[in-house]
Amino acid sequence: MSISADIDEIKERNKQLIQEVLEVYPEKTAKRRAKHLGTFEDGKADCGVKSNIKSIPGVMTIRGCAYAGSKGVVWGPIKDMIHISHGPVGCGQYSWAARRNYYIGTTGIDTFVTMQFTSDFQEKDIVFGGDKKLAKIMDEIQDLFPLNKGITVQSECPIGLIGDDIEAVSKAKSKEYGGKTIVPVRCEGFRGVSQSLGHHLANDAVRDWVFDKLGNKNDGFQGTPYDVAIIGDYNIGGDAWSSRILLEEMGLRVIAQWSGDGSIAELEKTPKAKLNVLHCYRSMNYISRHMEEKYGVPWCEYNFFGPSKIAESLRKIASHFDDKIKEGAERVIAKYQALMDGVIAKYRPRLEGKKVMLFVGGLRPRHVIGAYEDLGMEVVGTGYEFGHNDDYQRTTHYVKDGTLIYDDVTGYEFEKFVEKIQPDLVGSGIKEKYVFQKMGVPFRQMHSWDYSGPYHGYDGFAIFARDMDMAINAPVWGLAKAPWKQASPAA
Amino acid sequence: MSQNADHVLDHFELFRGPEYKEMLANKREQFENPCEPSEIERVREWTKTEEYREKNFGREALTVNPAKACQPLGAVFVAVGFEKTLPFVHGSQGCVAYYRSHLSRHFKEPSSCVSSSMTEDAAVFGGLANMIDGLANAYNLYKPKMIAVSTTCMAEVIGDDLNAFIKGAKEKDSVPAEFDVPFAHTPAFVGSHVTGYDNALKGILEHFWDGKAKTAPVLERVANEKINFIGGFDGYTVGNLREIKRLLTEMGVEYTILADNSDTFDTPTDGEFRMYDGGTTLEEAANSLHAKATISMQEFCTEKTLPFIASHGQDVAKFNHPIGVAGTDKFLLEVSRLTGKSIPDSLTRERGRLVDAIGDSSAHIHGKKFAIYGDPDMCLGLAGFLMELGAEPVHILATNGTKLWEERVNALLASSPFGKNCHCYPGKDLWHMRSLLFTEPVDFLIGNTYGKYLERDTGTPLIRIGFPVFDRHHHHRYPVWGYQGGLNVLVTILDKIFDEIDRNSNVPSKTDYSFDIIR
User: Fold this and answer.
1) pTM higher than the cut 0.90
2) Which residue, A88, A266, B50, B493, is the most exposed by fewest CB within 10 angstroms?
């Protein structure tokens, strides 16, 4: 059979599969969900699905909320600031240290990432408002954590509903503490349709409460022509570190990390960068655009998953600089060639031809595809938890003709898709992990790296390859069916 | 370059390579505007002092590292304990993502739950439309036998009325009129996850017993010989409920476990994903009205549910997460009293084996000082067991502990000479505990996974017993109740004690004279 016939068959299968899952929904819901499910057609400008639309009640969306996007993603990793989960206790509790944003520092003394600071709202705070409590909390923070470099207020749902003025409290306290950075963020969970608005609000808060209050803070900054900032890397399992090392090795000077292992001082210096390199476009394109407009800092997207994309990205970043950096990029690529060859020689034979289905957050539904392909694997389905149309446009550069696309997939759809397509590996989140493992399908968490990582950079790719191999080739998946329950072999 | 294809370095080792260490040191020096190391050291030492402790305990508004979660988590935990029941949390959707993640991280199991995904417009107009669509979608998609509704704080703040909304949704044919949709308001700004457990269970019993929100006749109680059993919010629910079933079966007691999520959180890997598994049947839930009595293993998880049950004419008995010999004795005697069944010799033998084990090991535990934190009832159960072992609880802390809990703890401590140097800390958090461990050190800390930060900072060895435990696997499959459970807890504590003795005596030619082969 020819390849094109194969692809036609796949497209037809996808169509039927989508039809099948939609049949279970009430009519109105089926109509709405239909717009989010599709098959990528080669040559199209996007993936043919609608995105960034409200999730439908009752369908078991995988999405989170704006608070998760701001506190959990953008602000939480800034290590020398204290982030108050402002409202009831739960949000801060469930997100406490769960994202594996690695950092160096003395926790509780000059660093606070893996701590849970909350205003623990009680009924009286809802009834009478929480502003006074918030002010007192800031005083207590100053008293008990004197080395903190700033405070953010991460609003939970009730804040916006009870009419609290967290901006006024923040301004007053900032003044009282001699211009201390205090950032109120209106990231109440009911705002927007997913984490995505929380990223945006958090970016805007950096603009309004950090950049716009810079004053002369950067006056003494000694710049170089090779200053860059890493934007949109949360240092999960050390991702930003295994990226930074490559940028430095090619001759660049990384003046800031946003926001994994980041500090307020680094955020403040970033407008002085010569180039912002942006990994997670979804969560930090806003501030990158702002810095371009206001400070004239250009930005460039890159992808540090897998040797093919890493080399492409190093060259792309280098193209913004002089020959010294361009040579540096080539030198780095050459330096790691042997390691990459070794990794691929070891793992590719074990993974060749294996099929993967993904469903992840900001950049990974497309960014990791190259890394799988470097190992001879094929991504046959992918989708975004909270992507926008510009993500799906970018995805067209990665996916193959006939890839099944599912936006804001529901628990039901994902289960049915995997059941029918029978991939060799599913990459998604903790809520999905055990569902598929019960089905006997190997799984890797692709938000937390399943407690492994880093996966970025050359050092990370070795770990990525090892992890995918150990997931797919674990003997346990051969044990799922009891011998007496296995279908007898065909005669 | 330290990475290697033949021996892939993980994050543990990778970043300890010289190239990374240098890179990170430069980052700090050049770009982070760090505090002076001497300043960090000064503050670090200061946080260990009495002075800091006083300031820390002077906090009135700020909570740091609390040991509690919010109500709907408990409601979800209850809901999945009923046959083919889908938890439905009305309000913002992010909350549901959090509950599911939290439960999955502890049990290493799927956790199914839906949200009504309310957003800004629902904040303005109320979430009725979300309830109508949400129930219809959940019903069609996940084919539950029951949908148990609870609320996030968003829905509570705007004042959505679940009773009216569910009625409204049924009028719009979201689900059939006779389909069971029990509900409970579970505001996150009141109580904690144990309160949510209580509210949700009461909501379900009220639904079945008291006329399904005026859509069915109120059931008339016809007392029978069965007893109901309520476990409460419990990270060991899988092991514990199975152990309780075994004990009750040994005694020949007819029973109904209410909210039996022991199978839900322990499904097999055999090629099939079971969204629902096991659980109290809806028939059993309704018929539990007729039971002779109800036993709650956790008083503070059933503060409203038990009086509700008592008001329907049943005997009720409550415990505080009993662990150990005396705790289990009391439990079995109470079962025996309520049912008239005698305690069989087989259980007396089990009891003897636990006593035997304690006798064998007592010398290693006697006099050891412990700090305990966790949910209110579990703190009581653990403290009781420790004193039984001759250990001395010194700090007992429950962020969700109340005045009544404090009274219970103090009464327990007063009952034993081993409790006389112990203080109880209701409403305090783990940053308070940090001060306690520095200023009044103990030998061991018992708590959940978050206790590892205290272990790191204060050097107090952590024994992981509680919820959640994310960083050790499968302990939830083993009971801590019953004599067998007591043995499990004993061994968990002993293992840590022996590991510590070995760790403290393993330096060659310095301390290893005590590195004994027999202990």
Assistant:
1) yes
2) B50
